[in-house]
Structures are given as structure tokens and as C-alpha cells.
Specification:
Radius of gyration: 24 Å
Strand content: 35-45%
Helix content: 10-25%
CATH architecture of the largest domain: Roll
Number of strands: 28
């Protein structure tokens, strides 16, 4: 397979990209040196496809690649190249460059084969590839340049996990306090979020992500005014592997967070246990108050809220575990006991004021 051979044998020329000068798109150079940029990858694919009797074209356009941030406007001239190939009279989209790997924060090329960019469905490809010629979108209703710039920045993992945007396709979210995003799911998904202001990662208690009945729900409360990047990661519930980066939003905040933490701190056992928090959502609880706790913890034998080493056990209430707890200043933890384990797992941690 031509796509697989190129992605496994041609290395992206990061030095040429970072130098900012003219970059060779010659297919012979890419084949000879085993290095190239997008022009070289696309040119080599077209030459090898032609030699194999396969009809293909090289497409020029705009891509949301290395260095892109949500809401960024496109330049005047195209900055990227990829291919389309005709199979049984139907055009299919291919990107050998991104299929080969990626440029990391260390400014080095990391080879990581990604089959998502082989015959990518046009409705998915358009989120990060805008061809100069509209026809090559291969869509019944082509996207305008303005809409492309405004769309949310999604990564391949978003599609491979079966997520759906619904009404959350805008890349910029206006925040006057809390922002809530609901992404459709086809199976249980565990998610985490990171909120950045510039290069600085804010406290993890400014965002809270959980699976809520066929939706991955993201709650975020920016700590101050200004612009933020909300980066989401996800994996299938029960998967012991790494979370995959799935998307970025730009958040324009017009209000400062009055009380901190906005949400409880979530521990890994929360996601592996397929837990869903119903109440309380706020991470800051008033000392001396009686607080109702309610969670779905499907596989737990027992659950309890721990306040200053005093344990209040939650009771079964249909499908939930619930109970009233008196809050005291300090750390308030929600823990669960699972079959076959002697130790209790911490699910959530609140702050009592």
C-alpha cells in the first residue's frame, strides 16, 4: 500500500519548516533523502500512485496543523498539501503527512502511524483541511472560509471514539461564568480537561468532565477574565491506557471566578468506576451546612463521604447512592469500596470552607 509505505519511510523535515524558507516539494528529493514536508509527501504519493495506474491529484489548501490555536485566522496563501485518489469512480481523501506522525512540543518529529488520514470521510476531513478549490471538499454543502476558521479544533481521536459535536461546533465559547459543553457519545467515555491561559495550565479544579447518559459533559469556569484554551482528552471507560487529545476550544471569559475551587478534584477511580456525580457539583462547600450527596457508582459495594476522618455512609436510593453530610472546614472526600478490594478508592475531593 502506497500510503502505508510513505508514512513508514518518509520523515517530516522539521528543520525546513522551522527555518521558514523555501521548502522542497520535489517527490524525487523526498524519495532520495527519505525526508520532506507536506508538498514532498503529497508529490511522492501522486507519483507512486501514477506509476501504479491509480488516478490521483495533489490538493493545495489550509490546514490546522502545528502551531494552530482555536479561532486563528487563515493566512493569505495556502499553507498545506494533501491528496485525493479515485477508487471505483469515487474520490477519496488522503493525508500522508499527518498519517506519518506529528511535531511535538519539543519541536521534533514523532513517527506515529495514524490510519485516520487514509480515506478520511469528507465530513471529518473538513474540520482541519480546507482546500483552495471548493470542489475538493467533496461535500454536498461546502464550508466557507469563515465557517472553517470559526469551527472547533478537533483531533482524530474525536472521531475514532464516536463522539458527536451536536450544537458545540463553534471554536470560541463566550464565558460569563460557567460554560457547559455536551458531546454526544455512543458508548461510555471517560474525559479530562486542561485549561490554559497562554502556556500556563490553570488548576484542574476549574474544569470537570464526566459521562452523563450518552453525553460527555464538560463544565468549565475560567478563573479570571481573558482568553483561555480548553483542551479535552478522552478514552473509553475502563481503558487502562493513555487519554487521547480530542479537541480544543477557545474561551473568551468576561468574568472572574468569585469562589475557588469551582469543582471537586476528580481521581482516576472516578472514571474507571464509571461514576457519575449528580450533587454537589461545586467544589467549595460551606462549613456547618448540611449537604446532600448523590452519585451513581454502579459497581461499588459501599460509598462514604469523609469529613475530618468522620465517615458518613451513603445509602442506596434506587440507582443512586445518596446521603446528607454535615460539612466542616478542610478536605471532604468521597470514597468507594469495590468487590475484591480491601482498600477504599478516593473518587472526589472537595474543600470545606
Amino acid at each position: 500500500m502506497i500510503f502505508r509505505w510513505i508514512t513508514h519511510n518518509i520523515e517530516y523535515d522539521v528543520n525546513a519548516l522551522l527555518a521558514g524558507g523555501p521548502m522542497s516539494g520535489n517527490a524525487e528529493d523526498a524519495l532520495r533523502t527519505r525526508r520532506g514536508v507536506c508538498e514532498g509527501y503529497a508529490g511522492l504519493f501522486m507519483e507512486l500512485a501514477s506509476a501504479s495506474g491509480i488516478r490521483s491529484v495533489k490538493i493545495s489548501g489550509f490546514a490546522k496543523g502545528y502551531g494552530y490555536s482555536p479561532g486563528q485566522q487563515l493566512g493569505k496563501f495556502p499553507n498545506y498539501s494533501w491528496n485525493a485518489v479515485s477508487i471505483d469512480g469515487r474520490w477519496r481523501l488522503i493525508d500522508c503527512t499527518w498519517g506519518a506522525g506529528y511535531i511535538g512540543n519539543d519541536r521534533k518529529f514523532h513517527r506515529a502511524f495514524d490510519p485516520h488520514f487514509f480515506f478520511t470521510p469528507p465530513r471529518e476531513f473538513i474540520y482541519d483541511h480546507l482546500p483552495e478549490k471548493e470542489d475538493w471538499q467533496l461535500l454536498d454543502h461546502p464550508m466557507s472560509r469563515g465557517d472553517y476558521e470559526r469551527e472547533v479544533y478537533v483531533k482524530p481521536g474525536f472521531f475514532t471514539m464516536g463522539l458527536a459535536l451536536g450544537e458545540n461546533s463553534a471554536g470560541t465559547l463566550r464565558a460569563d461564568g460557567e460554560v457547559v459543553v455536551r458531546l454526544g457519545t455512543t458508548h461510555p467515555i471517560a474525559g479530562v480537561a486542561a485549561l490554559f491561559k497562554g502556556e500556563r495550565n490553570t488548576d484542574d479544579r476549574c474544569a470537570f468532565v464526566q459521562d452523563e447518559l450518552r453525553a460527555l459533559v464538560v463544565r468549565v469556569s475560567p478563573p479570571d477574565t481573558g482568553e483561555y484554551t480548553l483542551r479535552l482528552f478522552a478514552k473509553a471507560t475502563g481503558d487502562t491506557g493513555m487519554y487521547a487529545w480530542i479537541m480544543d476550544y477557545r474561551i473568551a471569559s468576561s468574568r472572574r471566578l468569585r469562589e475557588f475551587p469551582a469543582y471537586p478534584r476528580k481521581f482516576s477511580a472516578f472514571d474507571t468506576g464509571n461514576v457519575c456525580l449528580i450533587a454537589p457539583i461545586s467544589g467549595l462547600l460551606k462549613g456547618g451546612s448540611m449537604q446532600k450527596f448523590r452519585l451513581k457508582i454502579p459497581w461499588a459495594e459501599k460509598a462514604a463521604v469523609v469529613v475530618n476522618e468522620y465517615w458518613t455512609y451513603l445509602e442506596r436510593d434506587r440507582e443512586d447512592l445518596a446521603g446528607d453530610v454535615t460539612i466542616q472546614p478542610g478536605t471532604v472526600s468521597v470514597c468507594a469500596k469495590y468487590p475484591g478490594r480491601e482498600e477504599w478508592d478516593t473518587l472526589l475531593e472537595y474543600t470545606g470552607k
